[in-house]
Specification:
9-stranded mixed β-sheet; homotetramer; alpha/beta; about 400 residues; 5-stranded parallel β-sheet; globular
Chain lengths: ~400, ~400, ~400, ~400
Amino acid sequence: MTIEGKDGTLAFRRIRLGMIGGGEGAFIGAVHRIAARLDDHYVLLAGALSASPAKARRSGLAIGLDRDRAYPDYETMLRREEARPDGIEAVAIVTPNHMHAPAAAACLEAGLHVICDKPLATSLAEGRRLRKLTQGRRLVFAVTYNYTGYPMVRQARSMVAAGTLGRIRVVQVEYPQDWLTTRLELTGQKQAAWRTDPARSGKGGAIGDIGTHAFNLAEFVTGLRVSELSADLTRFVAGRRVDDNVQMLLRFRGGARGMLWASQVAPGHENGLKLRVYGETGGLEWVQAEPNYLRWSPFGKAPQVISRGGVAVDAAAARVTRIPGGHPEGYLEAFATLYTEIAAAIRARSDRHRLAPEVQFPGIEEGIRGLVFIEAGLRSAARNARWQRIGTA
Amino acid sequence: MTIEGKDGTLAFRRIRLGMIGGGEGAFIGAVHRIAARLDDHYVLLAGALSASPAKARRSGLAIGLDRDRAYPDYETMLRREEARPDGIEAVAIVTPNHMHAPAAAACLEAGLHVICDKPLATSLAEGRRLRKLTQGRRLVFAVTYNYTGYPMVRQARSMVAAGTLGRIRVVQVEYPQDWLTTRLELTGQKQAAWRTDPARSGKGGAIGDIGTHAFNLAEFVTGLRVSELSADLTRFVAGRRVDDNVQMLLRFRGGARGMLWASQVAPGHENGLKLRVYGETGGLEWVQAEPNYLRWSPFGKAPQVISRGGVAVDAAAARVTRIPGGHPEGYLEAFATLYTEIAAAIRARSDRHRLAPEVQFPGIEEGIRGLVFIEAGLRSAARNARWQRIGTA
Amino acid sequence: MTIEGKDGTLAFRRIRLGMIGGGEGAFIGAVHRIAARLDDHYVLLAGALSASPAKARRSGLAIGLDRDRAYPDYETMLRREEARPDGIEAVAIVTPNHMHAPAAAACLEAGLHVICDKPLATSLAEGRRLRKLTQGRRLVFAVTYNYTGYPMVRQARSMVAAGTLGRIRVVQVEYPQDWLTTRLELTGQKQAAWRTDPARSGKGGAIGDIGTHAFNLAEFVTGLRVSELSADLTRFVAGRRVDDNVQMLLRFRGGARGMLWASQVAPGHENGLKLRVYGETGGLEWVQAEPNYLRWSPFGKAPQVISRGGVAVDAAAARVTRIPGGHPEGYLEAFATLYTEIAAAIRARSDRHRLAPEVQFPGIEEGIRGLVFIEAGLRSAARNARWQRIGTA
Amino acid sequence: MTIEGKDGTLAFRRIRLGMIGGGEGAFIGAVHRIAARLDDHYVLLAGALSASPAKARRSGLAIGLDRDRAYPDYETMLRREEARPDGIEAVAIVTPNHMHAPAAAACLEAGLHVICDKPLATSLAEGRRLRKLTQGRRLVFAVTYNYTGYPMVRQARSMVAAGTLGRIRVVQVEYPQDWLTTRLELTGQKQAAWRTDPARSGKGGAIGDIGTHAFNLAEFVTGLRVSELSADLTRFVAGRRVDDNVQMLLRFRGGARGMLWASQVAPGHENGLKLRVYGETGGLEWVQAEPNYLRWSPFGKAPQVISRGGVAVDAAAARVTRIPGGHPEGYLEAFATLYTEIAAAIRARSDRHRLAPEVQFPGIEEGIRGLVFIEAGLRSAARNARWQRIGTA
């Protein structure tokens, strides 16, 4: 129970936070707000919560923002906040994908730290421009690949890094869902509408929305980099404009092989993110829907169930754990862990002290890597699943 | 996602909260603080976080309280806060058990709403005095039997109430842990020390600490009342001063029969709270460590897995759900749900409007019922497990 | 893969077997026949498969018995077989309970080894008479508490015996079913009819049919003996003539405490036999419906899943395992293991060699112990769950 | 409990069986013998159990064959048995792979029914020659893809066939093991030695040994045919002569897409065969290690757990079920079901009656399909995972 800066462990200064997106009908905005509050490192002071000015204002008031800080648009927010002595220091960007890059660029130019939902942008080119903007600025840029915040994911990563599994051979990752089994986007469901609209979500459908999570998780835990991939992308639902099923072969630098499956048309799966890693001396399995457990199979011995907060956790997991084993933490806690680590990074920038190496939230590089992945996947699929190299971007 | 008053659904007025207990080395205090923050209905403004004045002050500052509201003791807090125009309205009491009653009494007398951890007190007599104090005062008194906040527990309760299971026949509830398998209380572990010390925890050990949770959950879900119980209490660890294993037969009014097992010496269990309810037409199973699922077995049909946020949830569960199915919520969210409902109740008292009947947090009666249970259990155990009636208290 | 006398490991002489009961409409008879065949230690040559002579003959022919050995009744079978040079050596008794004792007595008097289904008889007095008949006769008497044949049950037993769990403290055993949730006995279902008829099943219902299995398993695995019990027996289904739900507190010699639940009215459970044993240094859990796995929780370490045929099995389990881990064995294999061990015992008697101590099938003493258990349970229930001592019978 | 011809349902005539292979040190031979015995449709009368004459004789005697029918080699067996009036009618071939085709050819030419383990042969050309030999002969030719015998696999197949899942979109199948994680073949372990030796197992390693099972299961359940595949095959263990890890993209005729993973180097998996099928209206999941359950997720409703022998089984599953739900059947029972169905087919040929369409054991076509799959996989892997068409062979 030692998240850096968590309850009781750090002298307090809450980060002054603004938010772009996340108004009425949104999903991930409320998640970010809870995540920011949970460990008490932020105070949300300003927002431009919708692309519609009226809705933006209304949404801001509904969540308790002060009248003069519930802004109609983010340009106004950035301008006015800059003028305030108590203006915001950081911004959470939780819009549909196509707004990530312009909003993030504006925030960077306003000298604000950025917490951006994934994927970073709708094209690799955009992502690279953002990276350029970060250069030379002492600003934190985080991309919320939130599954990296789960304690048992951290333990998996540290076990691999410590060599507990030996050299990694096989990496199987999957992220099946079923919510787009039918053409939900025609029903007025807001999430389905924008996530299947190339203009707002980018050219990728499932590959961008959930495939990137799977890809990020695989690389985060193994520390390996995919060197090439072969992708079969499908649109199973008639009329859908983006892929809703992704199947890939992966090859990693160093020789490991993998498979990645992401689907939005797999009935029975809500958010079935699952990672399995096999090395010369053992195997690991982690399932997002039961995130408090890590199955560890040392070769030649009985498989073990390592539980978050339990007797077999290592320092990497313990550091991001709030409550004892058997009392489950979940998605919001993992998300909050990223926020807490981002707060530590923001304070480190402000105070010019070194950030502890254990702080592991994904940043601009992971964001760009996700875009490289999407583009390689789309290119491979367009070429009948021919192998595509993934560079270092 | 419609917790009354949750993010985006209610015009905002945050409850001004104080806290008694929960300083350095405490467990449940930090949980209450997160729970209060999570849905943004409270602002923690004052605290007397320890029985030791110096530690109380230090702990208060560490969590970011203002210098003048990090009080050395709760009497001072109550006195000074009463004098402030922006004084606290409600107090969370998160001390060891023996301090619950005096602190709660003082708060009630100061006209403050009370959120008290369980068990309500260390004796039934104390509990009854508290109840007396609540009478005639328009104050909310909540007892945080936190497992009642889980969405699938709410669904279980509403399914039983709707008659989906038919008349209830059998109720099996258990709460095994293993953390006291050895004599941890001798090692300086603070939680073990006070929880096995009759002077601080009350005469019951496991029966009070976790048995009450199991009992409360069984009655909460089934809507039934235990009419008599037969208890075998054991102290397996040599030298321990309170019971560490509880085994009971239960009889319910109306004819249902049950068993209750609570143990702190069951290796392999962290917080193994589990409830199973069987009626004429179906059975339910819920396991706290995997709280997002409810197993429902309609007699003569295939068992189903109902998931929180999923396609088969009812209104009672949906109302207290924040995020979609497959993205797990956990212990802190369930705890936060109680806080959010308590906030609604506090506002209802202030505004003299009726509280929605769906608000279901446990109150003084459930608190007293827990004490009746403990005393009946201890009495039965002292009489070689002879049946003891449980009155209406 | 070293069951004594199994495929390939013993010079062959198949035991000549007869059967009493198990004709048309029966359940357990076919199970015994498969169990006898599976490891090839028996050849079924004669049968009196029903109390109705015509049905007995017809049933015998249907399963391929020779015309002259498909007998109309067991008296005839015993008489005629005795006269044959190739007459049967052993008899499997698979009738409804009330016929066990008379049939077994007749077999013993005819000098035949007996394999009797459980419970041994419908009264303790009958059981004792049978035991008397075995004395002085060099005959094997087996009682098919078949769950003792599961490899992981054997491993659990040997782990307890080796002290791996330390001194045992808590034993939780349960056997819920749901098939008698409604009054199935009125529908003509043969199994329900006799099992709820005191004249054929004995005074106990669930307590005799499945409670005895739970009790046997608890004692078999722990090696402990229950010294007293307190029982609440219920008939939930209106009009039913025997108990359909059993709830008990158990006290073991040496200080361990336990609970036993057996139910036939618990919707969602088919054959939910489950045993959990907790000692000073670890806990074990075994579930009959997933019999190939044993969950072992060494205190202070991560729980492990030991799989039948896998890397962590001990000699006791390996000895009764046929196929590799991950290829499940089930109920019939466990049953067959008893038959194979019984064959070894029969050969040992014939050849006057010592039987290996690893052979562990239940015999007349376990059969009698089951009757003691039933009678104590019924007596306790009749006295409002007052404690009843269980002697050594 | 209505397997055609099973215990009690058919006038009896046991098939006279011989066996080739399966002597000392073998694994699958003993499995076939148990499978043949279990439902009592065969009597094993003759055998040539090893390629070594002395070992063949010794092994035959050890399992109880008559002295004159424990043959030194299969040619002798076929010649002598043909001459006997009570000679064998059918032969089980359970040798290493390279002997399948010559032995099967000899049996067919001797007019005997053949039950051949998988894969059918070590090359497609061999397989085709065998098929030619079956033409015009009224002989049964079975290939023991044994997983098709599991009741819940049958139910999965019949649910797909009935359209319960709608049009199939995605098929995910995997078969991970871990037994070849190290170079076991160098230790003298007989199974590892021949299965990694191209001269005895064929050019494929994991692809032939377990990949074929996965492939067969996917086609068996879905009724779909793979039209092309893209395969990445790896040899992770240094010095190994065949692949030990197989990763594939699959495309099915009609548009479904799939993935197949087979591995022998995945620590933590014993025999992790698992099939998932997703259609427009629902998804199915079946796991071989817990074969008595089928998870069925109708889109938009709560997932259900259908249990073998339980309330939700259909006729296809019930027909091949022996014992009630909750009493697990396993690998040997599924294998025995194939034997029982093969017996029915043999009797149908002899008696010239029509075989019930529900009899579904795999035959020569499925055997050849497995070889087509292996060759396409090897070819694709050799071409950097280029798509290879799978014809109708």
